[in-house]
Amino acid sequence: MHAIQDGTRPRPSAAGSLGYLLLNLPVGIAGFVAVVTLVSVGVSTAIVWVGVPALALLFLGSRAAARFERARAHALLGTYIATPYRPLPATGWQARWRARLLDGATWRDLGYFVLLFPLGVAEFVIVVTCWSAGLGLATLPLYIHYVPGDPVVFFDHVLVGDVVHALPFAVVGLLILALAVVLTRSMGVAHAVFARSVLGPGARARRLAESDDLPLSAVA
């Protein structure tokens, strides 16, 4: 799977998309909890300076987490996301922190991890449901053959107790798996576009880079 540059439609594999989408749930939960916790602690105690370290950790951690997300998108979705941050001043810690706070990319990082939680839940439920249903039905004849016992019951009244009667369900399962492959890749493409639009340089930076033939990080 080759890395796709900004401006090109991502073409992730089904396997890469599946791995990425399944990981979105734990990553989204961790990111959401970290952002909400550090914002709550930092804002509520900033007046007495206790919350300043929490806010500093929030902004530094969000950049590190965003770098991880760009690397994960590159590895699993084949999507290259350029670093969007503006260069920091060479000296002066106050100037450097002010530059971070005024950089729109910093706030987009935080927004991404807040949104990743509900997106991760939805993506996880969809892919797990489709793949589980497809695999379960497709392997039903094998299950009945190698694990004899009571008939499998569908919809409270459809009984499947032998391999012959299980074959139509297996065909349905294969169709669901084919649909799952297409759906998983489509969801991978959609999330790659979303991640690139939030975690990458803004539209203005991309236009400047294309017109001046500069690296995106140079104009972000």
In short:
By secondary structure, this protein is an all-alpha fold.
Q: Could you characterize what this model shows?
A:
The protein has helices spanning 14-45, 52-77, 93-102, 104-138, 140-146, 163-199, 203-212, 216-219; strands spanning 152-154, 158-160. The chain has a two-stranded antiparallel ribbon. By secondary structure, it is mainly α. It has eight helices and two strands, in the order H-H-H-H-H-E-E-H-H-H. The longest helix has 37 residues, at 163-199. It is elongated, with a radius of gyration of 23 Å.
Task: List the secondary-structure elements in sequence, H or E.
Answer: HHHHHEEHHH
Report helical residue fraction. Answer: over 70%
Q: What gross morphology would you assign?
A: elongated
Figure out the total of helices: 8
If you compute it from the alpha carbons, what radius of gyration comes out, rounded to the nearest whole angstrom?
23 Å
Strand % is under 5%
Largest sheet: 2 strands, antiparallel
Which blocks of ≥5 consecutive residues have pLDDT under 50?
A: 207-214
> Strand pairing plus helix content: what structural class?
mainly alpha
Structure characteristics:
two-stranded antiparallel ribbon, 220 residues, 3% strand, mainly alpha
Summarize the helices and strands and which ones pair or pack:
Layout: H1 14-45, H2 52-77, H3 93-102, H4 104-138, H5 140-146, E1 152-154, E2 158-160, H6 163-199, H7 203-212, H8 216-219
Antiparallel strand pairs: 1-2
Helix pairs in contact: 1-2, 1-4, 1-6, 2-4, 2-6, 4-6, 5-6
